[in-house]
Amino acid sequence: MSLPRRSSLAISSYDGPRVTEVLVFSWHHFLSPAAHVEARHEQRFPYMAIAQAACKSMDRSIVDVLSQGICLGFVFVVVEATLDAFAAEIAAYFPHTGRWLEKNAAAVLIFKPQHASANDMYADMLREICRQVQIRRRSQPEATLALTVFGPRALRAACRTLADSYPILPKAIYTTEDTASVELMAARLRQVEEHLASIIHHATPLDLSLVRPVDRPSVEL
Q1: Per-residue pLDDT for 92 more than 60?
Q2: How many CB atoms lie within 10 A of CB 15?
Q3: Distance spanning both ends of the chain, measured CA to CA
Q4: CA dist., res. 73 & res. 7, Å (int)
Q5: Nearest-5° angle of CA 177, CA 198, CA 60?
Q6: pLDDT per residue as tens digits for the range 126-163
Q7: Domain map of the chain by residue range?
Q8: All residues at 6 or more sequence positions from 195 whose CB lies less than 8 Å from its CB, including other chains
């Protein structure tokens, strides 16, 4: 499959001060349950069939969240793996997501830097995202850059650190488990999809933990 790495992205327009909305989703820790499924099941039939069925149940949910995201701002997916590994995972488990990525250049894939340590990986990825957004928003250089990340604590920490040295509005929706079940990840996606517009339009810094599914975020959105 042909996966986009660069794109021309449309800036959402809102009432009030101009804001460039940037949404960053972690692939392995927020969108895809493949790592969890493969860790539990051997790589042979019938276990692979079980893994494929579990991921298939998430495939359309991933597409739904990303589709809503590109209506709100720039969408980036940070992939904690190489391009080849990601392409193989998409081909094996996520056909709808793969087709969506091929058709929607507004979702930009950012891959793990080759020699980056675990501590530096997300920081490097976010700096690259900010660099790309700055290039693409030259028509609105005065706009506030709102960076909303969805992923593990390490991605949240990288976002907060970046905000100390870069003029951004940081918003983090983060997970607390290193490995989550398919059911929990599916519930998270449904929850985020339901509240995504409110999260993105939130006008102040946001730090929200998704420990378990709740009816509503514990902040006034």
Answers
A1: yes
A2: 5
A3: 38
A4: 13
A5: 60
A6: 999 998 888 887 756 667 899 999 999 999 999 999 99
A7: 19-209
A8: 216, 217, 221
